[in-house]
Batch of 2 targets.
Target 1
Amino acid sequence: MKKTTKTDLVQGTHIEAALSFANVIGKAAATLALPPGFSTVAGVMLDLVVNRTLSQRGNQFALEVIERVQAQEDQGKPNLQEILQEESAAALMLRATEAAMRSSGQRKFDALREAAIKGLLSSEARSASPAQIVIGILDRMTEHHIILLQWENDKNNKLYTLKDMSDPKNDKAQRSRFYGQPVYTDKSLLKNPSCIAMINDDFNAFVERDDQISFELASSDLISLGLLEPVYRSELYDDDRRVTRIRKTSEIEKYKISKLGVFVYDYISGDKIMTT
């Protein structure tokens, strides 16, 4: 099977032409225009998108899902046509494609693609309910949401000392103050700089204020969705027997990814096929 590349999509292939004009020439003629190996599965896809105007982003999304599902077929998994015979699975594919068309940014595109593939190939594919909910959540997210969720799930994150962060060569330490994203010591490089860390008199960290606000909004949204949960500060106290114990206070120290957040993260990353 000829592999379709992103360059092919940019330059305009028979696949793109067939999808783009499906609403005019109909799925039968469009399927004939597809390269060998794509006719059956792409014909099923066109059942979902016929009479709809697809952008290049939507075309690319659908084709990447097709290619990944076809790779699973070679390992004895059900083919796309069998999967999409289930109404809920077909609805999932259509909803994911529409969400990809409305979105911007590569991280969100990748997250939607992974969620769609896992939903179609999971043991719950007949109902596709968890995947549909994840797709719905992703649809309202931005790149900032995805970056935050990935950052909070990364178990390799570490706490850096002020000495680490003040080292001009320690880029990872400086980025740790901004979810792994670039920070600047020279605020003249930014349009609307905002100081996120005053490390010492000679070394401060700056970011674009719009990015800072976007992350703050995304964080609040993830908390409201239950994907981040509070970690309450603990304190020592002596009980009546003069025994020192630890208890949680009502003061929130920070937020961490919740079990639901991990579940969503698993849907949007890696090659793991969901089983629950």
Note: The longest helix spans residues 56-73.
Target 2
Amino acid sequence: MYLKATLVTIAGWFIGLLLDANIDFGDPMGFLSLRILFPILAMGLCILHELRHGSSR
């Protein structure tokens, strides 16, 4: 479970990094902070999935 959550979180960070670099939103900072948002969402979904399905295993 820890390995899956770690890999999904790193993949979320990488996808957010690529999107931040390639989407021009007009923000003066130059990014939308997707490299912060996607890993948080990924880890939260992994936690929720484990809480929901963890007790039945």
Note: The longest helix spans residues 2-22.
